[in-house]
Specification:
Order of helices and strands: HHHHHHHHHHHHHHHH
Strand content: under 5%
Number of helices: 16
Radius of gyration: 21 Å
Distance between the termini: 7 Å
Number of strands: 0
Shape: globular
Helix content: over 70%
Length: about 400
């Protein structure tokens, strides 16, 4: 334990533990969604693989759409904004200017994300976070009221644009027909089984859609969540929590009914393939994400369930390493450079695989942190950010 850690207050340690546990939890939810895109090109083309059309397959797809899709991305974005303030605090403690340090961190994150897209997974979020992080950096001195109003306006603009697209352009105005989408998905899945060059080509082939989604939906909603997270960190929302706060119960009482109803509507209306469904999800997903967060906070402070936080926090501390490692697993399992299982794994088995891989990450993260302060990716990013080589030993 370092001297810096030793002088932290109990509340500060608890806050960091809660945030790390939430980040680990968010990584699980993100992987449950991402693995479906890693395993086949059909989800990316917004159609179901006809090879897996049993009632159980359909039920699992609906469950993932209702409970996971578009929820954990928001939670992870909120935590990014929260950690942004922690970076400010760290820069102040180190006596260094925050803006240049954060700018280097953003550049490093973008470079890692670009390599991630090319080599591992075309659905990368790191480049989007880096680009939007520049906006957050430019706004880091604004007051809480301005930040909250800006987040609200951004979210309102996204919703209005989606409603307008649904009413005036139709829910699938820019999407190919089902037959064409199925043909594209089959060809792209086959490309995933090809040579390394074919796989890189497959990743780069989806770059246009990635940019479009980042500009129209993921980027703006991420910025809104960044701003909310920044305000929450300024107000030390996670400091000194004991899990019994009435606000947590109120968040659950509102968030679960609204969020679950919205998630079900999103799933049954067609998921990402329907603009109407996407509109419903954008409007309601924050409620479910907040309910999940409140529930986890209560769980990690429970007498009999505190072990959950102990299991999730190490994963969250190594969030970047674990996020990249999930993509490595995807390449090894599904592409032609590994076991070549693309298009061969059913939705139920994919769900089990996601939880199995995450369980391994839980164990490996705890083991790694017994001897190291940072994960491999965190170490490299910190080195680039600070300009000097950090100590790697715990």
């Amino acid at each position: 334990m370092t001297s810096q850690t030793g002088i932290r207050s109990v509340a500060e340690r608890g806050r960091v533990h809660d945030v790390d546990a939430l980040r680990g939890f968010a990584l699980l939810g993100i992987f449950v969604v991402n693995i479906t895109f890693m395993a086949s090109a059909y989800p990316g083309n917004l159609v179901a693989d006809p090879s897996f059309a049993s009632p159980l397959d359909d039920a699992v797809r609906l469950m993932v759409s209702a409970l996971f899709s578009m929820k954990f991305y928001l939670l992870f974005s909120f935590l990014f904004g929260y950690s942004f303030v922690l970076q400010m605090d760290a820069a102040q403690r180190a006596g260094r200017a925050f803006a240049p340090r954060m700018l280097r961190r953003i550049v490093g994150l973008f470079v890692i994300g670009a390599a991630h897209i090319v080599l591992l997974y075309g659905g990368d979020v790191l480049t989007t976070y880096a680009a939007v992080g520049l906006v957050l950096l430019a706004m880091h001195r604004v007051g809480d009221t301005t930040a909250l109003r800006t987040a609200g306006v951004i979210y309102a603009v996204v919703l209005v644009s989606l409603v307008g697209s649904t009413l005036f352009l139709g829910g699938s105005a820019f999407m190919p027909g089902e037959e064409e989408a199925l043909a594209n998905a089959a060809a792209q899945t086959q490309a995933m089984l090809g040579t390394p060059a074919d796989i890189v080509g497959h990743h780069l082939g989806g770059l246009g859609l990635l940019v479009l989604q980042a500009v129209s939906l993921q980027g703006p909603t991420a910025l809104a969540m960044f701003l909310l997270g920044m305000v929450a960190a300024r107000r030390r929302v996670f400091s000194g929590l004991d899990g019994g706060e009435p606000i947590l119960s109120r968040i659950q009482l509102v968030g679960f009914p609204v969020g679950l109803a919205g998630g079900a509507a999103y799933a049954f209306l067609g998921g990402a393939g329907s603009t109407l469904a996407t509109t419903v999800s954008v409007a309601t997903a924050p409620f479910l994400a907040a309910a999940y967060a409140a529930t986890l906070v209560r769980v990690v402070h429970g007498r009999r369930t505190a072990w959950v936080g102990g299991a999730l926090a190490p994963v969250g501390r190594l969030a970047l390493t674990n996020y990249l490692a999930q993509s490595v697993v995807g390449v090894v399992l599904f592409t032609g450079v590994g076991f070549g299982l693309a298009g061969r794994v059913s939705p139920p088995l994919l769900l089990l695989t996601a939880f199995g891989v995450f369980a391994v990450q839980v164990a490996l993260s705890a083991w790694w942190l017994r001897g190291h302060r940072y994960g491999p990716a965190e170490y490299l990013l910190r080195w680039f950010t600070n300009g000097d080589r950090p100590s790697s030993r715990a």
